[in-house]
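Dear U.,

For the methods section draft, I wanted the exact inputs and outputs in one place so we can describe them consistently. I've listed the two proteins in the order they'll appear in the manuscript figures. Please don't edit the token lines directly; just add comments below if something needs changing.

First protein:
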Amino acid sequence: MTSLEELRKINARCIHCRACQYAYSNEPDREGDSEDFTGMLLSCPSGNLYGWEGYFNSGRMWITRAFLNNEIEPSQEMLEVIEACTTCGLCAEQCPNLIDTVDIIEELRAAIIETGVEPLKKHKRFAEMVGTEDMRNPYNEARSDRTKWAQEKHGEQIDKDLKIGYFVGCTGAYRQQHVADHTASILKKLGVDFTIVSEEVCCGSPILRTGQKPVFEDVMNKNLEIFKDFDLLLFSCAGCYKTIRNDYPRISGKQLPFKTRHTVEYVYDLLKAGKLKINKPYNEKITWHDPCHSVRHVGLVIEKEILNNSQNWLLDSRAAEKTKEEHYEISRVVLNAIPGLELKEMYRIKGDSFCCGAGGGVKAQFPDMALSTSKERLREAASTGADILMTSCPFCITNFNDGIKALKKEEEETGKDLSDVGSKLKVVELLEVLDELL
């Protein structure tokens, strides 16, 4: 079981260079398509909004050091500063010393709470709902309704005795149900013999991110028991995917008993193997948003796994970077396999992608920060000239649509045309498109 103390040496790598505050910090002269997006961009959602050092990762690393050295007293105010972070991981991507910044932030949150400081109000409510046996989700919904979305169209897939499972997640089961529906439909079209498990509980992502480890460990252990005999788990939720793929082994100290793959990655595997070809066109101009959890976080762990086993960093660091970049290309390979689709890339992409603003418990506890971050990313998307902002994460979809609603409301109130900052963008889930084209 990891703890903040175990990360002391990793935290000590921080030399306060502040590279983590930027995107493309190693490319200060990088050119973009517009004056707004060029060079080094301040790209920490909380630091950008609040403006002072404690809200940037560089400040949080030094707060962590002070906490570990008993130089600062834990408090509610301190927890609020540390919790105002989407845990997007861009700081880790930029860090020249390869600090596991998100692990440290999440463990600091847990350590503060362990001293007796109360979790923040909305975050505490997450734990109460996920910890309640007849709910087991952060949306205050009945656990018995978890597979209700599938009963009419995919009822035959529920609780089958099979080796491949579709882990739906709470957002897909209770809110963005169209994502779950299209994913199940895709898997059936691809001939995947899969099942949807009604006993599935919350993956624990919102609980782990907000430092409430006992409840997280409870749901983690329940899911590991439920799925222990499976060969493969497939995901449509980026957060569930990252949590189970990356965090379960880190927190439990044990390898997963099953393999994991996001559905977009599964489609990519079939394309690369020559087992799938998309013939139906999708004649749209789109820009792509890389979900932090399924793209950057997974890429960073891929890189870390190679380096941790390295006997020669000079050679293996290049291989690690190449393998990580190959992971960042997966969604683009899928997009470029769709006839008629025109991809217009944003300035900050792949590992350097800017967050949607919803993660890390921020959307519930700090809605203004979530909305501000969403609007910033929408502005970047609109600058490409694309009509559609496409992604593959139900939480990103929710926050982007909330940002567009806010822009449209502002248009109505002021009479200004805000299309140049994203008011006319349409947010589309890639899995929904794939289901229509297959």
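Second protein (the one for the lower panel):
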Amino acid sequence: MTNRGHRELIRSVVGYPRDMIGVKLLGEPFVVGEKAFEMRSYVDLRSPLKEGVLKEFVERDFEVARNFVGHVIGNLNPGGEEEVCVIVGVPARASNINKDLLVKVFREFTDVVQLISEPFLVAYSQGTLVNCLVIDIGAGTVDICALKGAMPGEKSQVTVNRAGNFVDARLEALIVETYPGVQTNRYIVCKLKEEHGYVGQAEAQIIADFRADGKPVSYDITEAVGTACEMLLPGITEGVERLIRTVSPEDQETMLQNIFVAGGGSRIKGIDQFIADALGDYGDVGVTCVKDPTYAVAMGALKLASELPPQYWEQLGSVTDY
């Protein structure tokens, strides 16, 4: 998202030609995003990020990240005389090494760059920075953050490495286990999860079309979808419980009534009530899914960037644990 009104969701993959035929078909050194994904049958797909940060500390992955970031910022058509100032959302517990590598990539294409915790940016987008708790369910990580009126430190944030990609892997395994011979892959089950994901009680039977030995088949995957999605919950509730214990006793009740769920995982049907029920021993718990989970982090980043001049962004990196 930019202050010029640009708003776009980009699949974080880069495609490179596998051979001379691929070079001819692409007509360019690499392709990015959805275009790369659609060409996956004849390009080598590489994802520069894993669990929200650079996948590996090697030059090859650094180059993939450089190609991706350069493409994204270049498509925004920044003017030659204008400063490009960027706030990047990162997982709550990203290491300093990971942050430094991301900054190194972005500095090649920007004038000012600052990395900020993704759950903090969600809270900023909601205008709630005191006594609230954010659960940001992404593809690689679930980031949980307790907001107490200041920039959250390490003790106020938890990262769980079982998130959307984990659910996809478990759902694929459950389907294959239940229906031997079915032909499926991670892309197919991810689409099924995004369309039908639920926890608790299913609203209706889920029948999905597959191929088995090349022939079309239809299978009931209702139980598999629910079971896979519910595997997210233990890590989430344990993270919330750990953070609540760090909050002053007089503020715990208020925070438990102000829990926000964001990220793609917040679209799982029933997840807000499921989390609230799982935390029932703590009293009255209020859980709300944000209205625009796809852009909640970006909205918070843009709002923060617009309200705080870039010359003050460095102060955002001075985090004190509490």
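Candidate sentences for the figure legend, describing the second protein: The first helix runs from residue 20 to 26. Confidence is low (pLDDT under 50) at residues 318-322.

Thanks,
Y.
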